[in-house]
Specification:
Blueprint: E1 7-9, H1 11-21, H2 28-40, E2 43-46, H3 47-53, H4 59-65, E3 71-72, H5 76-88, H6 103-113, E4 116-118, H7 131-137, E5 142-143, H8 145-152
Parallel strand pairs: 1-2, 1-4, 2-3, 4-5
Helix pairs in contact: 5-6
């Protein structure tokens, strides 16, 4: 990776892209372009996303295990933002179910790298906050995957 990151991508966007809507056996050029963004350093993700993905043993997990350098490690700068996120949005992560475990880490990464957070999530509620809600509080722009494709000029 050589470039300055512009985007940070969530688990659900990777799952939607690789497993649901744009599988590489049908949409090869999507994945060529995604790989290019990752390799340039334009697109990053978090090591917590890697953990979420590799809890399963599917095609996305196999892909991710071969590309661990696409997933940024947790650091002290992120930790300061993470503490604030968890203090203000304690219901973001459903701890008993290990659901959404990467979400606060992703927002912290996007905040500290000044990147757009690629997510398929929509806003939630005060009782069930989602990534866009946390992004709004921390000055991070959320964006759906398709909008990133358009912005980066993807063509298939």
């Amino acid at each position: 990776m050589t470039g300055q990151p512009k985007y940070c991508i969530d688990t659900n966007s990777l799952m939607d892209c690789r497993l649901r809507y744009y599988p590489p056996d049908v949409f090869e050029t999507v994945w060529e372009q995604m790989e290019r963004l990752f390799e340039e350093g334009t697109l990053i993700s978090h090591e917590e996303v890697l953990r979420e993905i590799t809890r399963k043993s599917d095609e996305l997990a196999a892909w991710a295990k071969e590309r661990t350098d696409y997933f940024v490690p947790f650091n002290a700068e992120q930790e300061l933002v993470l503490i604030d996120i968890l203090d203000r949005f304690e219901r973001l992560v459903m701890t008993g179910k290990r659901k959404n475990a990467a979400d606060p880490f992703l927002v912290a990464l996007a905040s500290t790298t000044n990147t757009i957070l690629i997510t398929q999530e929509k806003s939630g509620s005060q009782n069930k906050p989602k990534i866009p809600d946390v992004c709004a509080a921390f000055g991070v722009m959320p964006m759906p995957l398709l909008d990133m494709f358009r912005r980066e000029g993807f063509r298939f």
